[in-house]
């Protein structure tokens, strides 16, 4: 992997998300491109909302446009300094336009996107993932990683597998992008209603053995497939969760804000999502 995108609202930098992005860059020896999105034409937030996190009098009396410019400049500088301290080579793209269109254009020429589940360009309170992040997950032309709220280490990789083409594609994509994780424990978890488990684990295990050293399967039969998968993931620590296509099949329902406690808003794990 060579090019990782760190996608952020230009006026609100999440340092924890940036820490995780730098960790992945150091792990894979990749360059980090900070994509700072400025909602130039359709900014819905008031000057008061943009100033909410301001400290001191630097922004006193400034217009909404001036407040945004100051935040953008400061955050880009913080990004550069953070990358330098963490020994990460970086680029900066300051994209002014419609945020989702800018991200789609960037994703075509990238290996991976890293984004905070709470990224939003509205004053309204949203659950995680926000509407903007859900659009990124559905429309991105490269895999997306939802950064965790907190991070300590990657000790286990969990491949969620429902015997679908999209789940298999996500496993291959992740494996090709992160060969450095070969020595981590790998668990393939399949949660199916009783009598519907048709997992061909022998072919899958044969392929995985060429890429990983420690492989285990968890086949769980439960009528509450979606809820049971969420419960299983909540019990894990220091894991990297891999899922298939967002917007179709199981992952779409797992991430839905209407589904109890959504994975993204609940887990302390990074979540990798890819679709073909």
CATH architecture of the largest domain: 3-Layer(aba) Sandwich
- The name of the CATH superfamily of the largest domain reads HUPs
Q: What structural class do you assign from the helix and strand content?
A: alpha/beta
Order of helices and strands: EHEHHEHEHEEHEHEHEHHE
What is the distance, rounded to the nearest whole angstrom, between the alpha carbons of the first and last residues? 18 Å
Main beta-sheet strand count, sense and barrel state: 10 strands, mixed
> What percentage of the residues does DSSP assign to strands (E)?
15-25%
The Cα radius of gyration reads 19 Å
Number of DSSP strands? 10
Order of adjacent strands in the largest pleated sheet:
3-2-1-4-5-10-9-6-7-8
Average predicted confidence as pLDDT: 85
Number of individual domains: 2
Indicate the overall shape. Answer: globular
Count of helix runs: 10
CATH class of the largest domain, named Alpha Beta
Low-confidence spans: 53-57, 257-261
How much helicity do the residues have?
Answer: 25-40%
């Amino acid at each position: 992997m060579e090019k990782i995108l760190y996608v952020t609202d230009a006026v609100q930098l999440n340092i924890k998300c940036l820490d995780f992005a730098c960790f992945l860059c150091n792990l894979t020896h990749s360059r980090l491109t900070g994509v700072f999105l400025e909602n130039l034409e359709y900014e819905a937030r008031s000057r008061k909302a943009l100033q909410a996190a301001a400290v001191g009098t630097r922004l006193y009396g400034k217009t909404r446009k001036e407040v945004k410019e100051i935040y953008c400049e400061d955050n880009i500088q913080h990004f550069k300094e953070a990358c330098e301290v963490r020994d990460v080579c970086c680029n900066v793209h300051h994209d002014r336009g419609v945020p989702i269109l800018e991200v789609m254009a960037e994703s075509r020429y990238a290996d991976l996107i890293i984004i905070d589940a709470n990224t939003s360009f509205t004053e309204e309170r949203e659950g995680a993932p926000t509407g903007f992040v859900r659009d990124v997950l559905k429309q991105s032309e490269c895999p997306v990683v939802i950064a965790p709220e907190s991070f300590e280490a990657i000790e286990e990789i969990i491949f969620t597998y429902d015997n679908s083409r999209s789940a298999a594609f996500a496993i291959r994509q992740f494996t090709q992008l992160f060969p450095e994780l070969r020595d981590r424990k790998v668990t393939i978890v399949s949660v199916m209603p009783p009598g519907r488990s048709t997992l061909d684990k022998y072919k899958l295990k044969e392929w995985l053995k060429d890429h990983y050293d420690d492989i285990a399967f968890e086949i769980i039969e439960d009528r509450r497939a979606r809820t049971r998968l969420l419960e299983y993931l909540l019990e894990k620590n220091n894991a990297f969760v891999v899922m298939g296509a967002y917007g179709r099949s199981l992952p779409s329902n797992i991430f839905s804000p209407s589904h109890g406690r959504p994975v993204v808003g609940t887990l302390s794990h990074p979540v990798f999502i890819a679709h073909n």
